[in-house]
Known about the structure:
Layout: E1 2-6, H1 10-22, E2 26-31, H2 34-44, E3 48-52, H3 62-73, E4 78-83, H4 88-95, E5 102-106, H5 113-124, E6 128-130, H6 132-139, H7 152-162, H8 167-174, H9 178-191, H10 199-210
Helix pairs in contact: 2-3, 4-6, 7-9, 7-10, 8-9
Amino acid sequence: MRAVIAEDSVLLRVGxxxxxxxxxxxxxxxxGDADALLTAIEEHRPQVAVIDxxxxxxxxxxxxxxxxVIRRQWPEVAVLMLSQFVEERYAADLLSTNTxxxxxxxxxxxxxxxxxVEALQRVADGGTxxxxxxxxxxxxxKDIDPLRRLxxxxxxxxxLMAEGRSNxxxxxxxxxxxxxxxKHINSIFTxxxxxxxxxxxxxxxxxxxxxxxx
Length: 214
């Protein structure tokens, strides 16, 4: 699995390279700004890119804007964003284009190497990985009518879905059976007015409504 890293902090960049290489990734490039990132993506065509939200020269949204370019021009490249703080607008911008192969984590999560690697692999495999704190902040922008129909447990399930958890992982987190999770998810689909369709597609739509970008 080939990866490109874009992070302006030299220490964190070196650390990310070591972590990825230790678990079998080939780091094709490790750069410090958005322009170099786009050049590296075009040259190496990695399976996944790990990108800092804020990079030179302005340290505002350079990483997010670069990620949106990547999603548009090289949709096969999965993107995992790293941010020092919860910036829900940037997460929403990224998720509004495509929820397949995308993640948004706080940098503090990198300290837990196992969790970080698991999230990275999930994104590289085409899934979604959202930091629980990002999800919590996005929920502050809620009050979409259909969401009011959900029970507290259904909201818990949908929140874990938004983090990219599988049914089994949700069941383990909530200490319930897989069948109970499946029933909750079917109820969520019904209450959010999502008709029967491809299961993955319905999950994506449910998460988008939860994050208020759908």
